[in-house]
Design brief:
Length: 231
């Protein structure tokens, strides 16, 4: 097994582990914090609830924020798969995956850092100061959450999926290629949910298909990274 085989195989394991981690932490946050519905509420409702969650809730957000790093690593490792479709595809795909992971990580990190700090101040802040805290909360959710973490992160993830799908097709794996392009288009449409409610159903479907496709990619990377028999 070459070093490239090992890296790709490790990336496969990382994708599967991160996908399962996403599901586990998402389920925990949904149970104890009402996530993601809580994103539609105002600071006066969200910040006290965040503070009440204590250190365990904050730790869960830190774990959730670290998981997109698996996409960064897998994106770099996917260069070996992408280059089968050409040098340009490889460069675009690796860059897209890296940007996706970093954007999502930054977007999620606002919860255990900025929002956590706002939540602590909210507990003792006078009514006159809470308006400013609420404005900061709204701004961080809009720019770091909706725009950067979700829209940019998901559009870059979509691009990575589509480019991988094209590479699979050029490698003769048409079914996988079509599935990859389809998964990428689904993520792209779901990424428009903060712009229009029309894609709400697509976004719900994407919440299920996204981790499933990441797990599928993990399995594919494991298979591509296995030792090859000598002829």
């Amino acid at each position: 097994m070459t070093s490239k085989d090992t890296v790709l195989k490790t990336a496969g394991v990382a994708l599967i582990a991160c996908s399962l981690g996403f599901i586990a932490v998402f389920s925990y946050l949904a149970a104890v914090f009402g996530y993601p519905d809580v994103l539609d509420h105002e600071a006066a409702q969200v910040l006290p609830r965040l503070a009440a969650g204590g250190g365990s809730l904050r730790a869960a957000w830190f774990v959730y924020s670290a998981l997109p790093l698996g996409i960064v690593f897998a994106g770099a490792a996917s260069a070996r798969v992408l280059e089968r479709g050409g040098l340009r595809l490889r460069n675009v795909g690796v860059a897209a995956a890296g940007a996706a992971g970093i954007a999502m990580m930054i977007g999620l990190l606002r919860w255990p850092t900025i929002e956590w700090t706002l939540a602590r101040h909210w507990q003792t802040a006078p009514a006159a100061s809470r308006a400013a805290l609420s404005a900061m909360f709204d701004a961080s959710n809009l720019y770091l959450g909706n725009v950067f973490g979700e829209f940019v992160g998901e559009m870059c993830t979509s691009l990575w999926f589509i480019v991988l799908g094209i590479a699979f097709r050029r490698d003769g794996r048409r079914l996988l290629g079509n599935l990859g392009v389809g998964a990428g288009l689904l993520v792209a449409v779901a990424g428009l949910r903060n712009i229009t409610a029309v894609v709400g159903t697509v976004a719900q479907i994407n919440n299920v298909t996204l981790p499933l496709w990441l797990i599928t990619l993990g399995v594919l990377f494991l298979r591509d990274g296995r030792p090859r028999r000598m002829a």
